[in-house]
Amino acid sequence: MAKVAFLGLGVMGYPMAGHLKNKGNHEVTVYNRTASKAAKWVSEYGGRTSPTPKAAAEGQDLVMCCVGNDNDLRQVTLGPEGAFQGMKRQSVFVDHTTASAEIARELYEQAKKRGFAFVDAPVSGGQAGAENGVLTVMCGGDAEPYARAEKVIAAYARMCKLLGGPGAGQLTKMVNQICIAGLVEGLAEGIHFAKKAGLNVEAVIETISKGAAQSWQMENRYKTMMAGKFDFGFAVDWMRKDLSICLGEARKNGANLPVTALIDQFYSEVQKMGGRRWDTSSLIARLER
Ligand code: NAP
Asked: Is 139 left (phi over 0), alpha (psi -120 to 50) or beta?
């Protein structure tokens, strides 16, 4: 049992923090910018709230965090009331935000200077993965603090791995998003084509999902895509944030991402159709306008 704080009780953070309490049996303190959410969390799980990230971080063995983007992360860590002002020496800050590799390296250095460790640890598995405690966690940082963090992360992860030094977790998450982007467009085009061809889409997917075209997206999203229902998880706005991080990194490392760049443009069209909060399978809506 460890003393742990969790910063950011959004769609992901709220159930993740819950698993730290219920499954991990840790002593949990939560912070959320909108305080009412933190109060609700405590009424559901117990534990305690803190008014600022700094106060939440004080005296903890580990501080976990899951906020929106680089700027949010900078505010909750390095801001005047940020967690880095309160971290105990030898403790570990674990960041689950999907952010850039640059900010991960910057926060790693800042943490080192102040005598504690930083592990970048973005996640995959969506809202359902967080609620069921079966996330995939991709980590970057040093081996010894990672080993301490891994034991605590286990409360909400099915797979957790250290993939290299600072930033390696974020780089791995970029690979994850690059792999998903083109795949979802392929699935959207396949379903769209099957409909136009007058096929029974259900029967088509049932058949081809047993062959080489099978994917998580196919198994979990084809029914809702066929029905034009897009409220099943990861939002288009978040995906565009992630793809912009991927494309920015590719400009620096020289990788060619032509399909990823194109899909990013397709998602911008979905946003213009009113789909900012639709889930990422809404690429099919663009084909069927
Ligand atoms: P969300 O529901 O919008 O929650 C964001 C959380 O961050 C909220 O608790 C919010 O506080 C807090 N926050 C944002 N900016 C802040 C700031 N400047 N200062 C303090 N707190 C701030 O987002 P989410 O879906 O949980 O996603 C969180 C992260 O996980 C993102 O990086 C996302 O890309 C990644 N992710 C999400 C999914 C998914 O399926 N949702 C899957 C994989 C990865 P308030 O309550 O006050 O707004």
From this structure: beta
Cβ contact 145:96 at 8 Å: no
Residues present in the chain in total: 289
- In angstroms, the CA 195 to CA 181 distance is 22
Rounded to whole angstroms, the Cα distance separating 81 from 114 reads 16
Q: Give the 3-state secondary structure of residue 237.
A: helix
Phi, psi (5° rounding) for residue 232?
A: -120, 50
For the stretch 183-212, pLDDT in tens is 999 999 999 999 999 999 999 999 999 999
pLDDT tens per residue across span 73-96? 999 999 999 999 999 999 999 999
**End-to-end Cα spacing for the chain:** 53
Sign of CA dihedral 16, 22, 23, 25: positive
Q: Active site residue: 40, 54, 112, 173, which one? A: 173
Q: Where do runs of H (alpha helix) occur along 83-235? A: 101-113, 126-132, 143-153, 168-196, 201-208, 216-227
Q: Does the Cβ of 24 fall within 6 Å of ligand 1?
A: no
Q: Assess whether 173 carries a catalytic annotation.
A: yes
Instruction: Please state, in angstroms and rounded to a whole number, the distance separating the CA atoms of residues 84 and 79.
Output: 8
